[in-house]
Amino acid sequence: MAADVHSKGVTWDTPNGNLAPVEHLPNSRSESPTPGLVEGTEPGASQERAMFAHTQSFEDLTADVELTGSHHSEVEEVEEEQQGGLEGGVEGGVEGEGGGGEDAAVVEPKPEVQAVVREKEEDVTSETWRSHKKHVFVLSEAGKPIYTRYGSEEALSSTMGVMMALVSFVEADKNVILSIHADGFRVVFLRKSPLVLVCVSRSGQSDGELWRELHYVYYQILSLLTLPQLQRVFQQRQSFDLRRLLSGSERVTAGLLRLLEMDAGLMLNATMSLPLCSTTRNVVCTSLQAASSKNLVFSVLLAGSRLVALIRKKEQHLHHTDLHLLSNLAASSSSFRQGEGWTPVCLPKFNASGFFHAHISYLEQASDLCLILVSTDREDFFNLSDCKQRFLDRLKKRNVYQALQEALHTPTYPVSQVGIPELWHFVYKSKSSGLYTSPELPVPYRTEEEQERLMELYRYLHSRLHHPTRPLRSIYRCTNTENLLGWSTSGFELYLCFSPLATKALAMSAVTKLLKWIRKEEDRLFILNSLTY
Amino acid sequence: MFLIKGMPIRLLQGRTNELQTHSNADDQVLTDPRMASGMQEKQYTPSLLSFFIYNPKFGPREGEEEKKILFYHPCDVEKNEKIRNVGLCEAIVQFTRTFCPTKPAKSLHTQKNRQFFHEPEGNFWMVMVVRNPMVEKPSKDGKPPTIEYQEEEILDTVYGAVLQQCYSMYKLFNGTFIRAFEAGGVELLTQKLEKFFYRYIQTLHLQSCDLLDVFGGISFFPLDKMTYLKIQCFVNRVEESLNLVKYTAFLYNDQLIWSGLEQDDMRILYKYLTTSLFPRHTEPELAGRDSPLRPEVTGNLLHYGRFLTGPANLKDPDAKFRFPRIFVNTEDNYEELHLIVYKAMSAAVCFMVNASVELTREFCEQLDALVGPQLTLLASDICEQYNINKRISGPEKEPQFKFIYFNHMNLAEKSTIHMRKTASVSLTSVHPDLMKILGDINSDFARVDADEEIIVKAMTDYWVVGKKSDQRELYVILNQKNANLIEVNEEVKRLCATQFNNIFFLD
């Protein structure tokens, strides 16, 4: 599945033919949720149209990106121009007006840079380096280092050379290397010509999950360069040092890898929305909808990593991967807090061959509310800046700005609100809306270490439910430290974590109770209307 | 549903330590019945691509790479190809040492095949390359058919265990690699390897390996206390009178009752007896009276005892008194022994005698006269007791569940999933996908030390329950499609109470 050789080219908007979002009328929503729920009627299902490109689980991530999509002719025309400009930038060698250069200027490393520097200086022969939980390497087909998560690329050039040698040795037999398994760790290879991505993991995750993570890193690189530019630089010179074009993006990648470990959304291919009372959300959404401009494709309002509102152009759907990349990009740089940022960005799942231009800014410097406006026009900065102002004015005029700020104080809810004894935590994903909800982490999972462990447990359930050849309907796992239940139906996915004292009977009744509660709260927890300009 | 699959038969020719094989077609083609009409998809099961043993220290200089290779199957592979493939394994192992110097690679997954690495003795590497199962789909317009490899269908734990078993079986009959090397250099070692593996690997039925290969357990015969004591008495008496006998093992119905060997040695000897030696001798017994397969009647009417290894007929003036040699306790004492297997009806006894002693006609006659009548009597006693016990426990009903049980402490294993083995086929009563889910759960258990329970519902609505408690593992498959988690739990509790009433499982 990792190989270009046999992955099928799936178009961006229909990863799976029969999964196209279905339109549902509000009255078709069933009152009491049962496992027999049809997709689109589960709690949290969007009422009209889906706002995301539809995604089931991680399978579609392995599909190749579409290079010549005929879906968005209008968007592409503009992009072609942009590519011309970029080419010039690359040929010039250093930061010209090209994408790489501009990006590097925007993403200025500030406080967290220390940590990155420290990791870069690590001795790659030391035990500390070896025992990192997850290494990620990116190299070119010439075996040249492009990225390493720990240590410096220079020090690892021979190791990466060996990696490339192994890849090409196996390929010489018309075969594809997938992974190497050893006691306690595994090495997973992902071939995405002209790049090779390698992950060395001690986390116990399956190959499939690690491939998903490597795909994210690959898309991260595409989002900075676009696929045609990436291919072009290596066509021109096989030994090209790609680090020149990616300089400054290390922290974005580091942030992404962190997110992959901590955020259930990247595992589920879903996004969490900020709990908000429906009237406030409606005003925010309509205000954002009204603040439109000719070339706007997506307007995204985020509170941290939580989605507050998403407005899109008619017929255009944002992919979760792209949204996670955008949100990570915004979060990885403190410079957006100082003012309005303007950066070219490729949304690889939407269209890997061209750039959009993103206006990224915080509503207030100290606030967590981040507005991302995505346009097709590179000269659109002042238009979008104006859009943002109109949006802000409207929020204030209609007195919801305060309510929104207050909602930020309670970005989540305690699990006790659900009222199920022994239930410690849960993750619920509505498949048709692509949104998920999850309460705040309770006491046993407050430390980062424990939080990561809980995520690992969820990832275990997820990978067993979505096994590529032996998928399961449900899985219950009982250990000394917790009881876990994972359940996947056509409408939703549910992951529950109970205290070790819980019984199976309690778990069964908890599911029914929880689904009822989510149905009751769905206005607040989910974004039920998907608006277009 | 019942699926017939080839059972691994290890036909070891006892007298000469040589292996006799039923060579089987390498690629067993099963046509998927669902696809049989129209499309004609062909499904290929996993098969052995190559098997080799090398020692990187034997040819460290460039140009001498061939010296590293001690055994290579198939032997007709071109020299450079062999060197290339060994080189890849060395490179993979070396590469993984970058990340953990002490625990290098165990397997390499590629799209077309999977390679398993095992270093049983310092610097001696065994590699087994298994082709992934695949589906051949005919394409239209006369183009060559497309092949889809199913790389997820092979379980590392299962084939890793098969490779380790290969070594254990070699060691049982040949001793360690290093001893052979010390005794006769590379020449003797390669000779031994060639002789053993050439035939042995043809008996590997890779398509029918499953969780039981991971456990490599021993099936014990359930017995009441009185009969057990009788057997113990018998063993002690024989060891007393024939003081040459160093170790004894007693089996009934292919199941173990008593063994004086170390567990690991018994485990592999048991494997040899039940999958190779016994099936070879039961087939003639099952054959009709006039069948040419039926062995000559020994003419002894006093008892039913006979030698399964060594002389076929004591009365034969030309009978040879040579027995297969086995190596046990290779870690410390390194003992070489004669293996005498003697059988009367369903009872079989293994007597092991130090290899330095020459076994004579007199000894064999003495053994036959002493053991034959007693063992015949004992066998019918056991049979009688067994039937009484069976009657008490009530008539057998086809239960709603199938299970596999394994105890890591005494290697006891029990499976109602696997039908009784015959010489050439073994039956499993469940779908291969369910067997793989059992394997998945087993590898999840292996990752943690603590007790755990995992209950899953497969897409076919079968329930699979795995429980691990204090070195014991139990796997249950339930065919109650409409049951819920609570009912499944109750069902498994009942099973534990009836079948394993002394064992505590985490609830």
TrEMBL record, chain A:
It holds the Pfam family Fuz_longin_3. One of its GO terms (cellular component) is Mon1-Ccz1 complex. Residues 422-522 form the FUZ/MON1/HPS1 third Longin domain. Residues 1-49, 72-105 are annotated as: Disordered. Residues 85-102 have a biased composition (Gly residues). Residues 294-392 form the FUZ/MON1/HPS1 second Longin domain. It comes from the Eukaryota. One of its GO terms (biological process) is vesicle-mediated transport. InterPro entries: FUZ/MON1/HPS1_longin_1, FUZ/MON1/HPS1_longin_2, FUZ/MON1/HPS1_longin_3, Mon1. Residues 134-253 form the FUZ/MON1/HPS1 first Longin domain. Belongs to the MON1/SAND family. PANTHER family: SAND PROTEIN-RELATED, VACUOLAR FUSION PROTEIN MON1 HOMOLOG A. Plays an important role in membrane trafficking through the secretory apparatus. This is Vacuolar fusion protein MON1 homolog. It comes from Ictalurus punctatus (Channel catfish).
From TrEMBL, chain B:
The lineage of its organism: Eukaryota, Metazoa, Chordata, Craniata, Vertebrata. Pfam families: Intu_longin_1 (PF19031), Intu_longin_2 (PF19032), Intu_longin_3 (PF19033). GO terms for cellular component: Mon1-Ccz1 complex. One of its GO terms (biological process) is vesicle-mediated transport. Belongs to the CCZ1 family. Coiled coil: none annotated. Residues 245-371 form the CCZ1/INTU second Longin domain. Residues 49-175 form the CCZ1/INTU/HSP4 first Longin domain. It comes from Ictalurus punctatus. It comes from the Eukaryota. Residues 397-495 form the CCZ1/INTU/HPS4 third Longin domain. This is Vacuolar fusion protein CCZ1 homolog isoform X1.
